[in-house]
Amino acid sequence: MFYRDPQHIYRVTELDALPWLVHGFGTRLADIPAQFAQLATVKQIHSSTCLAAGGRRGVIGEGDALLENTPGGVVAVKTADCIPVLLIDERQKVVAAVHAGWRGTAGRIAAGALEAMRERFATRVEDVHAAIGPGIGKCCYEVGAEVAALFGERGRAHIDLAAENRRQLEEIGVTPSKIYASNLCTMCRAEEFHSFRRDKEAAGRLHSFAGIR
What residue range is the signal peptide (predicted)? Predict the structure, then answer.
């Protein structure tokens, strides 16, 4: 279950039970970078590329998903309508932060990040928790026919990116009860979230992060 803490960060109750984990989804009022000496991030390019941080800090390359298994390491992605997904391996203590826009979602980036966790760190899918953070909701995300066709729709359509990421994760074996969705629309909730579709170039960015104590 998602809740907002006193620092204006959304967290997941079920993930709070993992004492080694730090995680959260930022809001307009949460200064995530100030809480950590240095985050590991990527130059986001709306791709399906997943990189491993390996304890490094700063911008470590181009891509849209970042893995970490190093104590003290924190990985983060930035969004302003795209869907942030955090993947947590409770057994191997591996985390991933994923930026899933329509291109990344169509390219199955969240599922791809989990596959990378399996290949690099021997993650077992039954040990994985997934948190799907605030992003633009189906209520506000109307797309043209070309994009809609990537999600099995005809003509202009409203697309549910969060639901599609959930479906892809369930399809590769993540336990449905271990997938937590915020169901918070960044475009609807202007008081809490930045939204590129709503605010255009004036939009800020929201940090979503996961790390190992």
Answer: none
Mean pLDDT over residues 89-108, rounded? 99
pTM, rounded to two decimals? 0.97
Q: What DSSP string describes the chain?
A: -EEE-TTS-EEEHHHHT-TTEEEEE--TT--HHHHSS--EEEE--SS--EEE-TT--EEEEE-SEEEE-STT-EEEEEESSSEEEEEEETTTTEEEEEEE-HHHHHTTHHHHHHHHHHHHH---GGGEEEEE--B--TTT-EE-HHHHHHTT--SSEE--HHHHHHHHHHHTT--GGGEEE---BTTT-TTT---HHHHGGG---EEEEEEE-
Structure tokens at 48: 């399906």
φ, ψ of residue 79 to 5 degrees: the values are -140, 160
Q: How many CA atoms lie within 13 A of 190 on its CB side?
A: 7
pLDDT at position 101 over 70:
yes
**Euclidean distance between CA atoms 209 and 74, whole angstroms:** 7
Reference 44, options 67, 61, 69, 28; nearest CA is 61
CA distance between the termini of the chain: 22
Which domains are present in the chain?
Answer: 2-212 (3.60.140.10)
Tens-digit pLDDT profile for residues 188-212 = 999 999 999 999 998 999 999 999 9
pLDDT tens digits, one per residue of 120-159:
999 999 999 999 999 999 999 999 999 999 999 999 999 9
**Chain-centre distance for alpha carbon 46:** 13
